[in-house]
Amino acid sequence: MSKPAAAPIHPLVLMQVESRLTEEQKAIQTVVRDFAAKELKPNIATWYEDGQLPARELAKALGGIGVLGMHLKNYGCAGTDAMSYGLACLELEAVDSGLRSLVSVQGSLAMFAIYKFGSEAQKQEWLPKMAKGEAIGCFGLTEADHGSNPSGMATFAKKDGSDWIINGSKMWITNGSVADVAIIWAQTDEGIRGFCVPTKTAGIVINPIKHKLSLRASITSELVFNDMRVPDSYRLPEATSLRAPLLCLAEARYGIIFGTVGAARDCFEVSLAYATTREQFDGPISKHQLTQAKFADMATKITTSMLLAYHLADLKDAEKIQPEQISMGKFHNVNAALEIARSARSILGGAGITSEYSIFRHMSNLETVLTYEGTHEIHMLVLGQALTGIAAFR
User: Fold this and answer.
1) Is residue 2 part of a domain?
2) 263 and 331: one domain?
3) How confident is the model at residue 152 (pLDDT cuts 50, 70, 90)?
4) Considering Cα of 374, then 377, then 382, then 383, what sign does the dihedral take?
């Protein structure tokens, strides 16, 4: 007589990785998880299939639970620690990468740029509204011909008296079509500078990017500037080189490190639930050795990714984190999540390609996450430079 099956153990419980969280951190994670279960999960498949996102309504709802710019202090921001912000990203991306992107671009790119490099007047004007979700921001750095090498950007801001005249364009800009304010990076005669520009400014045209096969529940746009005249008061006074936008990108990449663990966790949970009910050869497919081998591999990858994310959160809260450490986190965790999504999809067979299950959507999204905010190859070369002292990409 065979023994009854033991109760399954979640991979994060198996190694007790969540035992290090404080009660406050757990409470924040629970708030975001409950919000996601009630407001996001029931709608995400439709938003994705339709290629639409009610971004303004979602921004206000997300502002209502305090996750927009939550790791910033004052100006209406929650002022949480880095760990709590990471856990919020995890729960949002467990639903969809596009939802985490909305929050990440708002808080870690647009708001952080104003918070770190803006004038006091710019902070007072924009940050409280953005924290509430009453205003949405976007971040204009990438160009069609300058992605991995932003130092080569062609967008140019020319000084004209007390104003600046900006010409150029930006591509693949999340939140662009719904943004109230755009952080725009441009070459000048003195080097790269940043500008905080209301999107109603004359001379800016915003074109939605359609026909995406990934991140469909995310608004992506092209920004075009034709002799756009802005006053010097729009310039971010503390942004005086390319280092400024790169620091903003480091903030956003940190959220990806946690977020992708959420996508991986959801793929694991969905495939495990399927495998325990799907029967082949006189029993659930979860009893077969090859299927269990896939779960063991997925569980190990989730656990190691989570531990890496926790360690980086500790470094960030201690203000000791370095760019190459963030690169390793994104390099490892995105790749691990994508491998988990592919393995989980294989367990579902044909059912895995339908929108009834979240796995293929995660897999498609992660293909984009692999190459945005620093491609997989660029992060590999950042690590190579740190390990050898030689910059292979310069």
Assistant:
1) no
2) yes
3) confident
4) positive
Residue with tokens 């950007």: 153
Could you read off the pLDDT of 70-101 as tens digits, one per residue? Answer: 999 999 999 999 999 999 999 999 999 999 99
Which CATH number fits the domain that encloses residue 336?
Answer: 1.20.140.10
Question: Domain range holding 95?
Answer: 11-132
User: Which regions of the chain does DSSP assign to beta strands (E)?
Assistant: 137-140, 156-160, 163-174, 181-188, 191-198, 204-208, 220-231
| pLDDT over 90, % of the chain | 82
Distance CA(138)–CA(181), nearest Å, equals 7
Q: Which of 173, 202, 234 is the last residue of a domain?
A: 234
Instruction: Fill in the DSSP letter of residue 192.
Output: E
Domain co-membership, 304 together with 168: no
Task: Tell me the catalytic residues.
Answer: 373
Amino acid 1: pLDDT: 42
Query: Do 256 and 370 lie in a common domain?
Result: yes
Q: What confidence category does residue 2 fall into, taking pLDDT thresholds of 50, 70 and 90?
A: very low
Amino acid present at 362: H
Maximal C-alpha separation, the chain: 89
102 and 161 part of one domain: no
Q: Which amino acid is at 308?
A: L
